[in-house]
């Protein structure tokens, strides 16, 4: 009998959040799900499958048992120290609660068992139980601006922007510190991982540098100067290049991570900031925070193919898709508003008032085998 990898993962890990050490969980495969050939077909007769890092996010279907949860959008309000909870079916705020100081992003755990609000100002993570939508406790780690998980689920990464370092921690055993890696440029912010998970690329916003860190050895191994103010980072679906939004240069830098050089720059709009991959993995959505717009980049051509304007302006920041991929959700960092765009028409669907300085919102549950953290990055 062939067992679905997604079924195995969720059967094993749908347990209590990592407030205390959980039992060892079976690790999901790092690569995309592939259909096995029939028993009478020789493997050698099949063409090699092209790499698609995001293959497990294309179905538009939330895997079970997560599929039983009502959809919610959790919005951290950095200026207010609160979280607003939105029902995406009605576009209404249905809950509101206090968390720690300066909450920046809400990161789903690698196994989807919890949501973590990174409270940079109070050096804590607020743990939310996604079954109830309520906070259940806190975890102490230093100044978490961002929180990520390695693709194999063995390590959590606390992005300690204030201290110019990232910390590798073990979320399965009391969040024990495994290694601290100095990032010797100010503004360590956002990252993404290589297709095989062996290294990461991290932006340093205030220095114009993108750094490379070996995930296995937990060591800084290189950097590339992109200039401007680099923010969000996404690996391409084929794993060959990294896209980096550049708020200072008003566009997107494309980096060859082997040669460690910029191979292309794509102008998008003033304040290019947040990223989201389309559900079919053909497009990259970019929020232009300083002009209230979104640019759509084709991965095939590395060119902007559409631009969507928020009527009346706004400050779109971090992005999320609904499972179907038909709605693009954006926090409005300086407008206390969440925007919802129709990805088919490019038109505004809704503006939802929330708390002060809303930032890294997450739409949960969502599509994918596991989460890499941030505000909901799935593979």
Number of strands: 28
Number of distinct helices:
1
Round the Cα radius of gyration to an integer and report it: 19 Å
Helix content: under 10%
Largest β sheet strand count, sense and barrel closure: 4 strands, antiparallel
Strand content: 35-45%
The residue-averaged pLDDT reads: 90
Low-pLDDT stretches are 1-47
> Biggest sheet, strands in spatial order?
3-2-1-28
Separation, N- and C-terminal Cα atoms: 24 Å
Indicate the structural class.
Answer: mainly beta
Output the helix-strand order. Answer: HEEEEEEEEEEEEEEEEEEEEEEEEEEEE
Indicate the overall shape: globular
Summarize this structure briefly:
The chain is mainly beta and 379 residues long. It has one helix at 5-13; strands at 72-77, 82-87, 92-98, 103-108, 115-119, 124-129, 134-140, 146-149, 156-160, 165-170, 176-182, 188-193, 199-204, 209-214, 219-225, 230-235, 242-246, 251-256, 261-267, 272-277, 283-288, 293-298, 303-309, 316-321, 327-332, 337-342, 348-353, 362-364.
Relevant terms:
globular, 1 helix, 379 residues, four-stranded antiparallel beta sheet, mainly beta, disordered N terminus
């Amino acid at each position: 009998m062939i067992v679905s990898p997604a079924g195995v993962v969720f059967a094993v890990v749908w347990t209590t959040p990592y407030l205390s050490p959980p039992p060892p969980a079976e690790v999901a495969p790092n690569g995309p799900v592939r259909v096995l050939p029939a028993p009478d077909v020789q493997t050698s007769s099949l063409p090699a499958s092209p790499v698609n890092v995001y293959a497990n996010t294309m179905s538009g279907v939330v895997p079970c048992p997560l599929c039983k949860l009502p959809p919610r959008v959790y919005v951290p309000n950095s200026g207010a120290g609160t979280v607003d909870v939105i029902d995406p079916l009605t576009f209404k705020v249905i809950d509101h609660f206090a968390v720690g100081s300066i909450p920046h992003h809400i990161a789903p755990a690698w196994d989807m068992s919890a949501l973590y609000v990174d409270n940079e100002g109070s050096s804590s993570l607020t743990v939310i139980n996604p079954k109830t939508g309520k906070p259940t406790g806190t975890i102490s780690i230093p100044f978490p601006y961002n929180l990520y998980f390695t693709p194999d689920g063995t390590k959590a990464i606390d992005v300690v922007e204030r201290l110019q370092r990232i910390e590798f921690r073990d979320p399965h055993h009391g969040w024990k510190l495994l290694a601290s890696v100095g990032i010797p440029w100010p503004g360590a912010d956002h990252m993404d991982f290589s297709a095989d998970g062996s290294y990461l690329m991290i932006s340093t916003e205030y220095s114009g540098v993108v750094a490379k860190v070996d995930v296995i050895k937990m060591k800084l191994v290189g950097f590339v100067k992109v200039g401007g103010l680099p923010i969000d980072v996404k690996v391409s679906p084929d794993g060959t290049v990294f896209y980096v939004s550049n708020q200072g240069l008003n566009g997107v830098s494309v980096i060859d991570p082997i040669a460690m050089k910029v191979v292309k720059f794509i102008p998008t709009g003033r304040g290019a900031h947040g990223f989201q991959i389309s559900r079919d993995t053909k497009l990259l959505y970019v929020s232009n925070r300083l002009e209230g717009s979104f640019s759509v980049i084709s991965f095939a051509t590395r060119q902007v193919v559409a631009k969507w304007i928020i009527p009346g302006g706004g400050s779109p920041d971090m992005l999320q898709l609904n499972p179907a991929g038909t709605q693009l959700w954006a926090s409005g960092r300086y407008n206390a508003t969440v925007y919802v765009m129709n990805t088919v028409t490019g038109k505004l669907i809704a503006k939802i008032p929330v708390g002060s300085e809303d930032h890294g919102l997450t739409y949960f549950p969502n599509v994918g085998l596991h989460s890499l953290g941030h505000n909901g990055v799935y593979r």
